[in-house]
């Protein structure tokens, strides 16, 4: 290893040690009860709630996936996605956070999202809870795998070490401190990681602008590449297929005789596609890792402060991420010639432009993003199985100790499954995350909104809408989207509409909810929490 590699590694080791220290510090408190382990005893302050919600939500997708899309195909998809997410962040904190904080406590002091669904509709058979838990397990297993891909790519790109081994090392680190510390450790460490992530993005963005000798050169480059800087067109790299050693086919952008990348005619990015990309914001209404922070915040009176913090963080972080991708292409146009390789643009820029030790700290931002997300996903998926299925259905008299052991076993199984999912190093982080994001948004988003705002929604409508929204994500992505054209839109939009419509129609066609349910709905906002 070179001296610079050693300094980068040293900075990352120090960072990991600090994060694991947080896990050990909060371990004793987190193990005292399931409410402490899964929800931190509802004691999160506004800064921790806001920053941990955003950090756990964004994952390595923010520092690798989003810049990679901007680098490879230009501004359109990356910018509209960022706008949709910024709007979704603000609206989620504005219209959902306070209501969910109050209603989750009024509805039997629910400590998980599936708990809330069953308690909200007085579902004594726990059907809603069980179905929700299964959807959470499926989509978070995919999410965890994408986080492990990020870790493997990071260490492989930095040091040239084998991808698979590095991916397993990162996975084990995430597993260790999630297992030790629980929700509170995860939330506090996510607060630290949220700060590291946004600082890393801004530092690398500024360094990139300096390296490319000003934004004027970036603008000139974007104007020279057809569709690269447009919001209504998408740049189209001219690619050729390359056969890998394992027999897989990789699409690589072609270069001209001077070693510069070749581009095809730009593709249209019309109104319907823009609308479907903005629909990324709808996903927030169904995102368990964010909604849990709403349920865990110390007081609903502090939500306004959290909303401002979260929105400002989101806007700065995503603007910097998109900028890094666009500027990175102008700075090194022929360096990263596949969509998978393009997701390493942040890593390449950080190591090229910054002193080694500082680069290591900035690259800890990727590790920060990955750890802050993967720990949330593992913890929520484990709670879905242990709290909602094991205790909710199979052993209703289970003790906290038994539930905790089932959680640990579940997290171990998720770890193994995530490693299997992440075995392919050519996976696109952006595409994997977009699939799982659509799943959560369409499955839970309509149900969360109607549960909080519509008195007439009933159990039958909730169940039908949740299942139809989740299934439609798979149907649209696998069967409809391949037709292309207008059918090639992001699956979250049609699936969300279907789930919402089915929930309304079925609720109106079936008997209204019992009086006990409507009475609770009428008074839950009066709760002083």
Summary keywords:
single chain, 529 residues, mainly alpha, Sodium/glucose cotransporter, two-stranded antiparallel ribbon, 19 helices, globular
Short account of what is shown:
The protein has 529 residues and is mainly α.
Question: Could you please describe the fold and organization of this structure?
Answer:
- With about 525 residues, the chain is mainly alpha-helical.
- The protein has one domain (about 5-525): Sodium/glucose cotransporter (Up-down Bundle).
- Helix content is about 75%, strand content about 5%.
- The strands form two sheets. A two-stranded antiparallel sheet has the order 1-4. Strands 2-3 form a two-stranded antiparallel sheet.
What is the CATH architecture assignment?
Up-down Bundle
- What's the order of the H and E elements? HHHHHHHHEEEEHHHHHHHHHHH
How many structural domains in the coordinates? 1
* Head-to-tail CA distance between termini: 55 Å
CATH superfamily: Sodium/glucose cotransporter
Strand order, main sheet: write it out: 1-4
Number of helices: 19
Strand percent estimate: under 5%
What fold name goes in the CATH topology slot? Sodium/glucose cotransporter
| Count of beta strands | 4
Helix content: over 70%
Sheet with the most strands, sense and barrel status: 2 strands, antiparallel
Q: List the uncertain runs.
A: none
Specify the CATH class: Mainly Alpha
Rounded average pLDDT = 86
What gross morphology would you assign? globular
Structural class: mainly alpha
From the alpha-carbon coordinates, what is the Rg to the nearest angstrom? 23 Å
């Amino acid at each position: 290893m070179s001296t610079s590699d050693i300094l980068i590694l040293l900075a990352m080791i120090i960072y990991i040690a600090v994060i694991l220290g947080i896990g050990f510090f909060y371990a004793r408190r987190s193990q005292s009860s399931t409410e402490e382990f899964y929800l931190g005893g509802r004691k999160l302050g506004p800064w921790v709630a806001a920053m941990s919600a955003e950090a756990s939500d964004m994952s390595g997708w923010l520092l690798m996936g989003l810049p990679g899309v901007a680098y490879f195909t230009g501004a359109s998809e990356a910018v509209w996605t960022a706008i949709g997410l910024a709007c979704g962040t603000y609206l989620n904190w504005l219209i959902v956070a306070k209501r969910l904080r109050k209603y989750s406590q009024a509805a039997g002091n629910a400590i998980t999202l599936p708990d809330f669904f069953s308690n909200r509709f007085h579902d004594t058979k726990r059907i809603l809870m069980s179905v929700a838990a299964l959807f959470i397990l499926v989509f978070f297993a995919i999410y965890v795998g994408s986080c492990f891909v990020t870790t493997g790519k990071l260490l492989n790109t930095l040091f040239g070490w084998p991808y698979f081994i590095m991916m397993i090392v990162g996975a084990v680190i995430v597993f260790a401190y999630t297992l030790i510390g629980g929700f509170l450790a995860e939330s506090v460490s996510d607060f630290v990681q949220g700060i590291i992530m946004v600082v890393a993005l801004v530092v690398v963005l500024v360094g990139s602008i300096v390296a490319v000798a000003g934004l004027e050169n970036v603008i000139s480059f974007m104007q020279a590449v057809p569709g690269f800087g447009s919001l209504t067109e998408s740049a189209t790299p001219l690619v050729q297929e390359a056969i890998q050693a394992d027999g897989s086919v990789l699409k690589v952008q072609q270069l001209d005789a001077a070693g510069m990348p070749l581009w095809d005619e730009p593709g249209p990015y019309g109104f319907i596609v823009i609308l479907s990309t903005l629909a990324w914001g709808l996903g927030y209404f169904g995102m368990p890792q964010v909604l849990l922070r709403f349920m865990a915040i110390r007081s609903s009176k502090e939500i306004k402060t959290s909303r401002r913090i979260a929105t400002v963080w989101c806007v700065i972080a995503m603007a910097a991420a998109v900028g890094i991708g666009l500027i990175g292409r102008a700075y090194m146009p022929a360096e990263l010639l596949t969509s998978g390789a393009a997701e390493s643009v942040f890593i390449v820029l950080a190591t090229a432009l910054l002193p080694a030790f500082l680069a290591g700290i900035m690259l800890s931002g990727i590790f920060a993003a990955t750890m802050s997300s993967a720990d949330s996903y593992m913890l929520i998926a484990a709670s879905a199985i242990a709290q909602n299925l094991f205790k909710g259905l199979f052993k209703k008299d289970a003790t906290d100790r038994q539930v905790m052991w089932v959680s640990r076993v579940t997290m171990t199984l998720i770890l193994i499954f995530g490693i299997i999912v992440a075995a392919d190093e050519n996976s696109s982080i952006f595409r994997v995350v977009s699939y799982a994001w659509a799943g959560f948004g369409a499955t839970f988003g309509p149900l969360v909104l109607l549960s909080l705002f519509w008195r007439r929604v009933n159990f039958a409508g909730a169940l039908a809408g949740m299942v139809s929204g989740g299934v439609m994500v798979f149907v649209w992505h696998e069967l409809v989207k391949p037709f292309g054209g207008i059918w090639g839109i992001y699956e979250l939009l049609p699936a969300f509409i279907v789930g919402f419509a089915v929930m309304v129609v079925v609720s109106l066609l079936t008997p209204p909810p019992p009086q006990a349910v409507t009475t609770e709905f009428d008074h839950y906002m009066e709760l002083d929490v």
